[in-house]
Every structure is written in C-alpha cells, then in structure tokens.
Write a structure and sequence with these properties.
The complex is a heterodimer of chains A (157) and B (258). Chain A is mostly helical. Helices cover 92% and strands 0% of the residues of chain A. Chain A is built from 2 helices and no strands. Chain A is rod-shaped. Chain A starts with 5 loop residues before the first helix and ends with a helix. Chain B is mainly α and 258 residues long. In chain B, 72% of the residues lie in helices and 2% in strands. Chain B contains 8 helices and 2 strands, in the order H-E-E-H-H-H-H-H-H-H. In chain B, strand 1 and strand 2 form a beta hairpin. In chain B, helix 1 packs across helix 7, helix 4 packs antiparallel against helix 8 and helix 6 packs parallel to helix 8. Classes of the chains: A mainly alpha (157), B mainly alpha (258). Chains A and B meet through helix 1 of A and strand 2, helix 2, helix 3, helix 4 and helix 6 of B.
C-alpha cells in the first residue's frame, strides 16, 4: 500500500491524457455537436416557416378558387343571357322574314289573279263579239228589218 | 506488500499474491509497472477511441463511434454545466478524461481475477495486478493532480491574497483566525484524500471479494461472482461518476469568489 514513484508516473500520464483530450478530442466533438444543434434548430425553423407558407398558400388558393367560381358563374349567366338574346333575335328575324315572304306571295297571287281576270275579260269580250257577229250575221234579213231601214231612211231624208 | 508475503501458502498467500503489484526498484523509487502499464494502455484506448470519433466528427448524421463519443460528451457537458458556472475550457475535457479513464481502470475489475496473472506468469511475470484503481498511487496521482488544479485556480481567480483571506477569515470571521485556518486546511486536504481513498477503497474491496470468491469451490463461484459482477457494473460506473462530479464541484468552488 506504499506510496512511491508510481504516483509521479501516473500524474504525468494523467496530465498528458488531459492535455490531449483538451487539445484534440473535446473541441472537434463538441463543435460538431453544437453545429448539429444549430442545424437541427435551423431545420425546424425552416420546416415551421414552410408550414406557415403552405397555410398561406392554401388560403390564397381558396381565394383564387372562389374568385374563379364567381367569375365562371358570371360568365355562364352572361352566356345564357346572350344565348337567349340570340334565340329571341333569330325568332324575330324568322318571323319578319316569314311575314315578308307571305306578303310577297300574296302580292304575286294578287297580280296573277289580276292578270287572269284581265285575260278572262278579254276572252269574254272576244267571245261576246264573235257571238254577236254570228248572231248579227244570222239575224240580218232585209225583209224583216225593212221597217227599221225604212224608218231610218225616212229620218235621213 | 512485503516480500516475504508471497512465500505464504494457501488462501492468504493466494490473496496476497493477487494484491501485490509487479514492482521494480526500491523504497520510494519503486515503480508499480503493472499499474503504469495498464493505466497507460487504458488511457491510450480512451484517447484512441475519442480521437477516431473526433477525426470523423461531422455535424451531419453521426456514425456509431461518433454517436457513442457524443453521448459521453453530452453527458459530461451536462454535468459540468450543472455544477460549474465559470468559464474554463479545461474543466470539461478534464472531467471527460477522469470519467473515462477511471471507468476503464475499474472495468479491469470485471475480468476474471486469474486471467491476467496467468498470462503474466506464462510471460515470466511473478506478480500482476491489473486494476489500476486498486493501487493507491493511481488514485492519489489523480486526486493530487486535481488538488493542484484547485490550488492553482483558487489563486488564479481570487488572487494569492484573496485565497489566503478565504483560508484565514472564513467561516467564522477574523477573530477566530487560527481556528479558521485549521478548519480550511483540513477541508482542502480532505478533498484529495477522500477522492483517492473512496475510489481505492471501493475497488480494492471489490477486487478482494472477487479473489475470495475465486477461492471457493468452482460450483459456488458463478452463483456468487455473477451477482457481484453485476453489482460491480454499477459500482465502477458510479465511482467514475463520483470522482468526476466531485472534481467539477471542487473546481467550481475554487472559481467562486466570495
């Protein structure tokens, strides 16, 4: 159990070990620990930031979608209105066209009827004249109409 | 250990043989070669392991070695931060060295008591005591180094006069100066002695019990040495931890200016 020179040897070894640890072991390991701590903290902060941004983006997206919905419904309404208008317009146009066509047809019919009437009248007159001529040809007889001729001659004289 | 002790036969001879260091030289200039050798090898092991980790240290994903080294570093750093409030870049590496080195010393206790002496005897060594912490020289070397550091930092932080004042005027004021001085000197000197003797006593007793168990019939040995070894896993870690924490506390006290 004696204390002897071993003590001095052990103290030298101890001093060397402590020196070596202080110089070459503790600093790099401790620094890497600190650096990792910082890295992790940064990473966590970045993740949090990212999450916040996601929330913001989601809100923004919801707003955009809402706007788009409103706009699209407006567009649909407008389009429907316009379609209605177009249908109305075409109906009007068709009606007018129809009326115009009807009128034209009527006028043509009138004209043709007039023409036919004219033709008929002409033919009737011709027929009457022919008939009258034939009657006249058949009826004229000097004996029979002597009285009339005489009377006329009398008057002339 | 007396030189005639190994001549004794039987159980006493066996025990004494196991507790006698491999020595060289006479009187004060005796060297315990086994203590010096094993503590140097264990110190080298500690330094090599941590240097490997330190060389590969990255802030990225740590490897297995780095992970383990960092675990110990964090553990020691927590202890230092809890007890020590000054700024001194020596304290934490000192604490780490003490913890690991003492733990490795003590760990030698868990090897079967006859293995190393047997190997030693094959190599022609008469004695071999492999647990450095069962050598008072080893434990005192460490505690006296710590004691020197306590004195050094006391004077550095408080100044020679400040330290002297603390020794003379505390805790009972200037009127009881001699009594204060006596009390303080005892307090200071008790620090290295208690540090060294606590570690030595625990490990010496533990080793002694392992040796006693080794004397029993073979069928009884596992029944006793197994629970004792498990218990000792706790003891060796605890002793290393106590040595480290008390060193931190003592140095922290040295840094406190009243």
């Amino acid at each position: 159990m004696s204390i002897n020179a071993t003590l001095i040897g052990q103290m030298i070894t101890f001093a060397l070990l402590v020196w070596f640890t202080m110089e070459y072991i503790w600093p790099p390991l401790f620094d890497s620990l600190e650096e990792r701590k910082k890295k992790i903290a940064d990473g966590l902060a970045a993740a949090e930031k990212g999450q916040e941004q996601i929330i913001l983006a989601e809100k923004k997206a919801i707003g955009v979608i809402k706007d788009a919905k409103v706009q699209s419904s407006e567009i649909v309404t407008l389009a429907q209105k316009r379609a209605n208008e177009i249908v109305e317009e075409s109906k009007d146009t068709a009606k007018k066209e129809g009326e115009r066509l009807l009128l034209a047809a009527k006028a043509q019919i009138e004209q043709e009827m007039q023409q036919a009437k004219e033709g008929l009248r002409q033919q009737v007159a011709d027929l009457a004249l022919t008939a009258a001529e034939q009657i006249l040809n058949a009826e004229i007889d000097k004996t029979k109409h002597q009285d009339i001729i005489t009377k006329v001659s009398n008057q002339l004289s | 250990m007396s030189t005639e002790a190994h001549a004794a036969e039987g159980a006493t001879g066996y025990i004494i043989h196991h507790l006698t260091p491999l020595h060289f030289g006479e009187g004060f200039w005796t060297l315990h070669l086994d203590t010096l050798f094993f503590s140097a090898v264990l110190g080298g092991l500690f330094v090599w392991f941590f240097k490997t980790a330190a060389d590969k240290a990255t802030a990225g994903v740590p490897g297995l070695v780095q992970n383990f080294a960092e675990m110990l570093i964090e553990f020691v750093d927590t202890q230092v931060k809890d007890s020590f409030h000054g700024h001194n870049k020596l304290i934490a590496p000192l604490a780490l060295t003490i913890f690991c080195w003492v733990f490795l010393w003590n760990f030698m206790d868990l090897f079967p008591v006859d293995i190393f002496p047997l190997i030693g005897s094959l190599m022609g060594l008469e004695y071999l005591r492999v647990v450095p912490s069962t050598d008072l020289n080893a434990t005192f070397a460490m505690s006296i180094s710590v004691f020197f550091l306590i004195i050094f930092y006391s004077i550095k932080i408080k100044g020679a006069w400040g330290f002297a004042k603390e020794l003379m005027f505390q805790p009972f004021g200037p009127w009881l100066l001699p009594f204060n001085l006596l009390l303080k000197l005892v307090e200071e000197i008790a620090k290295p002695i208690s540090l060294a003797l606590r570690l030595f006593g625990n490990l010496y007793a533990g080793e002694l019990i392992f040796i006693l168990i080794a004397l029993l019939p073979w069928y009884l040995q596992p029944v006793l040495s197994f629970p004792w070894a498990i218990f000792h896993i706790l003891i060796i870690t605890l002793q290393a931890f106590i040595f480290m924490v008390l060193t931190i506390v003592y140095l922290s006290m040295a840094h406190e200016d009243h």
